Structures are given as structure tokens and as C-alpha cells.
DNA sequence: GTAACACTTCAAGTATACTTGAAGTCAAGA
DNA sequence: TCTTGACTTCAAGTATACTTGAAGTGTTAC
């Protein structure tokens, strides 16, 4: 199995080494081997880091990730909790997308509005109304 | 023009009074009138607060909001900066949506995977592979 | 008149997620 | 041997966006 130094894993995942040490401290990365005192990661850690980044990208708190990865250590015992956690997170992401899409159209309206004003300024006409753009 | 106490504006916008005071401190809410020492808001503040919440919902930093509302005080002088700010923010939201949609399908895969495991456990079958769910 | 209530100011505190700095270890190269 | 570079640990610091607490003011209810 391939192994990685902290520098390699850092570059592969675009994550600062300080964050990798932090994730280990708080138990998001577990069973990190040592060669002397230096950390040696493997493909398991690479995969977990991708999961961490997926969760992070979608706004999951570190506390929930800690829960999730602890549950994952004994899936049969925690299967219901795991399903609840991921299902709730799925709903949360859908909600975030819905909010962003709604607000995006407000922002797009603003973009049209201010472009209209700029055009009016350069052409020395009167400014558009918010409603008409 | 309608006016609002801090409590009314707080309830109308679902924003803690402490946040309203904070927004005023840092210049996001401006020209707040006083009746004695008590803040009196109006429809202008209500509208601005909706804008603040739109920006906040879409992840804009307070620093950028400060820029935006300062620019808005003199639109002709800052029209290019305003257009750049809102256009960049539009692109930022689109990027956020794209990331969320991509990660959502990962999470949905996880939901299917763990539901498959639960089913396998209850029916005493062997667990599904990640790829097959 | 006094208690309750809604508000005020201002400084300090909070949560999250890391980052930074100081001091030290260890192996390889000149 | 000495220096450089990459790593180590651990405590303290940082950024963002507020919140909380203490102490005070002013108006209404009994």
C-alpha cells in the first residue's frame, strides 16, 4: 500500500500540514503511523481526507464529522445513527442549495440593476427603476 | 413612513437586537434615528436588513458588505466597483451551488450505501459494495 | 414611590477552525 | 563537524461574527 509523508498528503489534498496535524489531534485522522517521529499516511488517510473535504465543503461541523467517523468504526452498532446523520446532512445540503438559488436571483437582479444604471450614466439618460430591469 | 423599535425590527427580520446594534456599530446600518436614546428604524433600514441577510445567506463577508453599502452612498462615483462587487458575488454563488451539487451526489451515494448496509444487516445478507449502490 | 420593563453603552467573552511561533529532533550533504 | 531542511510538539494566537454581562436610563403599571 502506498504511503505518504505529511508534505505529500498536504499537496495531494491541498490541505496545510498544520491542518493535517490538527485533524489528527481532534481524532478526524486516526491510526497515523510514525517513522521515528514523522507521520506516515496511507490510502486510508487519503480517502478519509476526501470525505472530510466533502463534509467541509458542504458545511458540516467538525463535531459532526467526529461523530460520523466514530460511528464508522463500528457500523453495525451505529447504523441508525449513521443513516440519520447522512440523511440529515443530505437535507441540509438541499436546503443550502435552495437558499443559494433563491438569493442568486436577487443578486442577478442587482447585477442587471447596476448595469442599467451604468448604461444610463454613460448615455446620460435617467436611471432605471428596480422593477424594470 | 413607518417606523420600528429595535424589538419590532428584530422580530420582523428574525435578527437579534444585539446584531442590529452591532450592524450599526460597524456601519452596515446607518442613520438610525433616536427617540431619547432609543433607536428608531424605518423602511429604509428594513430594506437594508433584507439586503444584509441576502448577502449573509450567500456567504458574503461583513467587510464586503461594508464596501458595498459605502459604494451605494455615492453610486455614480462607484458604479464600476459596485458592478464588479455584485458580479463577483454572483459568480461566487454559482460556484458554491456547483460545489454543493457535486458534493450532494456524494452524500446521496453515502445515504444509499448505508441504507444498503442496514438492509443487509436486517436481512442477514452480505453488505453491498460502495460501487453497487 | 417603587417596581418592572425595555431600552441604552461599552468592554469582554464566545464558537469554530485552524495557524503561528518557539524550541527541539533527526538524517543527509559539503 | 556543521549546516540545512523537513519534520516534531505544544501553547498561544487569529479571524469572523456576533453575544453576553454589567451598570445605567427612562417610561409605564400598581
Explain this structure.
The structure is a homodimer of 133-residue chains. By secondary structure, the first copy, chain A, is mainly α. Chain A has two domains: 1-57, Multidrug-efflux Transporter Regulator, Chain: A, Domain 2 (Orthogonal Bundle); 62-133, no CATH class. Chain A contains five helices and three strands. Chain A has helices spanning 6-13, 17-25, 43-57, 62-72, 75-122; strands at residues 3-4, 33-35, 38-42. Chain A has a three-stranded antiparallel beta sheet. In chain A, strand 2 (33-35) and strand 3 form a beta hairpin. In chain A, helix 4 (62-72) packs antiparallel against helix 5. The longest helix of chain A has 48 residues, at 75-122. The first copy, chain A, is elongated and about 75 Å long. In chain A, 19% of the residues are buried. The model of chain A has no long low-confidence stretch (mean pLDDT 97). Chain A binds chain B through residues 54, 57-58, 75-76, 79-80, 82-83, 86-87, 89-90, 93-94, 96-97, 99-101, 103-104, 106-108, 110-111, 114-115, 117-118, 121, and chain B through 54, 57-58, 75-76, 79-80, 82-83, 86-87, 89-90, 93-94, 96-97, 99-101, 103-104, 106-108, 110-111, 114-115, 117-118, 121. The structure holds a DNA duplex (30 and 30 nucleotides).
Amino acid at each position: 500500500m502506498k504511503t505518504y509523508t505529511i508534505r505529500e498528503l498536504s499537496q495531494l489534498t491541498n490541505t496545510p500540514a498544520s491542518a493535517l496535524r490538527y485533524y489528527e489531534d481532534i481524532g478526524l485522522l486516526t491510526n497515523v503511523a510514525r517513522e521515528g517521529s514523522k507521520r506516515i499516511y496511507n490510502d486510508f488517510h487519503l480517502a478519509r481526507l476526501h470525505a472530510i473535504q466533502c463534509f467541509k465543503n458542504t458545511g458540516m461541523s467538525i463535531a459532526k464529522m467526529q461523530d460520523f467517523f466514530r460511528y464508522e468504526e463500528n457500523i453495525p452498532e451505529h447504523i441508525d445513527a449513521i443513516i440519520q446523520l447522512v440523511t440529515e446532512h443530505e437535507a441540509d445540503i438541499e436546503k443550502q442549495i435552495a437558499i443559494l438559488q433563491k438569493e442568486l436571483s436577487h443578486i442577478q437582479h442587482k447585477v442587471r440593476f447596476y448595469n442599467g444604471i451604468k448604461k444610463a450614466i454613460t448615455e446620460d439618460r435617467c436611471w432605471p427603476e428596480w422593477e424594470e430591469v
